[in-house]
């Protein structure tokens, strides 16, 4: 499945998370720097940070080395951590938002809606199975993954970037 990217724009992302069940008192804001002065401008509390950065060959080399080291040494992952493998093109923003919400669900007090139902549907699944839920969303229009992808598609057309 190929999607238009969701613009990295707080207005678009806030609309997305609020449609999916995050209460309106929670919002996404731009972070203009990590120095003390820039951090003072960020509303508190902060539950999550999403980084936007370009990938390079050096990044992919480092990621491959890290992956090989983890396979060799092993890794213990908390069962409380929600992670979803990304199989859908241009869904990195949506996946980041899902991770941000799912790993803070106890603090957000989600409303009944797509996020809450998607998290219920994905309980007990592996990261790969969760990713497959989104990848196969087009084949089941009754699933929460389909509704989430539909919201993504609609909001991908908003924002300031021209879609070509």
From TrEMBL:
GO biological process, one term: ubiquitin-dependent protein catabolic process
Keyword DNA repair attributed: no
EC class: hydrolase
Keyword terms: Hydrolase, Protease, Thiol protease, Ubl conjugation pathway
Origin: domain of life: Eukaryota
InterPro entries in the record: Papain-like_cys_pep_sf (IPR038765), Peptidase_C12_UCH (IPR001578), Peptidase_C12_UCH_sf (IPR036959), UCH_AS (IPR057254)
Coiled-coil positions: none
Record-annotated membrane-spanning stretches: none
EC number: 3.4.19.12
Catalysed conversion reaction: Thiol-dependent hydrolysis of ester, thioester, amide, peptide and isopeptide bonds formed by the C-terminal Gly of ubiquitin (a 76-residue protein attached to proteins as an intracellular targeting signal)
Molecular function, one GO term: cysteine-type deubiquitinase activity
Residue ranges of domain UCH catalytic in the record: 2-164
Family label: Belongs to the peptidase C12 family.
The name this protein goes by in its record: Ubiquitin carboxyl-terminal hydrolase
Provenance organism: Rhamnusium bicolor
Lineage: Eukaryota, Metazoa, Ecdysozoa, Arthropoda, Hexapoda
